[in-house]
Amino acid sequence: MKCRRCQIPAVIKLPRHNTAFCRDCFEDYLHNQVLKAISANKMFKKDEAILVAVSGGKDSLALWHILNKLGYQTVGLYLNLGIGSYSELSQERTETFAKGRGLELIVQNYRKTYGLGIVEIAKESARPPCSACGTMKRHHFNRIAMEKGFSVVATGHNLDDEASRLFGNLLNWQRPYLEKQSPTLSDNGGKWARKVKPLYRLPEREMAAYAILNRIDYILEECPKSKGAKMFVYKEALNKLEIASPGRKLAFYLGFLKEKAQLFPSRIEENPNTCGECGQPCQDETCGYCRLVARVKTKVMS
Ligand code: SF4
Ligand code: ZN
Known about the structure:
Blueprint: E1 12-14, E2 19-21, H1 23-40, E3 50-54, H2 58-69, E4 74-80, H3 84-101, E5 105-109, H4 110-114, H5 118-124, H6 129-148, E6 152-154, H7 159-171, H8 175-180, E7 184-185, E8 194-196, H9 204-213, H10 230-244, H11 248-263, E9 273-274, E10 281-282, H12 288-301
Parallel strand pairs: 3-4, 3-6, 4-5, 6-8
Antiparallel strand pairs: 1-2, 7-8, 9-10
The structure holds iron/sulfur cluster and zinc ion.
């Protein structure tokens, strides 16, 4: 197998592009996919500082590596969720990555802040762990971005994440989620940091290859709370479709983005109010995060 561009031995075959690349051409191709995603969705400008949300996994660390290599100004943000050895190891991998490249990393530790990890927070607030985790993450990403002067937060969601989320939302006809799904999420008229997903054109397999070729030491384990998640079933189904018809996954997601404006023409303002407790944009008088934290405090103190 030879590289399609330079004819030296290839390191990866890409059936969806009916091609194969050597190490340098693969890197070039992958960086171009990221640049294409950034410019097509007006994610950020070259002089804008980017807060990169990192989990210690391959996608977020590779994203940080890529943005840094492409010359963007970046600072990492790691949230230690307090999930035993998984959190300890993922923090260690993230810190080693940042230190080795001389990059700044902000760490927020839930156990230090709340005295509880996300599993206990979820239990005390009577919410499923991933639902409480999503609410908490959104709040911290936005709060830390605003406090430190970042207008944009980049996450490592890849094509498999986005296509499987779309698949699940369609299977369950989740119209509000379909309306919101996008590589660039609303910044609520500047009141919120813009959330962007520069890896949405790249599948998991290509991101794993990139991380290995660039010797990125990432945590292999998934969060223990992700066990049994429906998302894995959707990913598996899409992988089968991809094998039968290479390129289907990206076509499915890009097709949705193209049709979205016509499918959902009247977009209601997402969060018109300001939370009376924390000052972040929200739908009612108090945001979901403040309601969750108040519930935990009441339960823990009673
Ligand atoms: Fe949070 Fe883990 Fe659930 Fe992901 S799988 S949302 S990190 S609790
Ligand atoms: Zn609030």
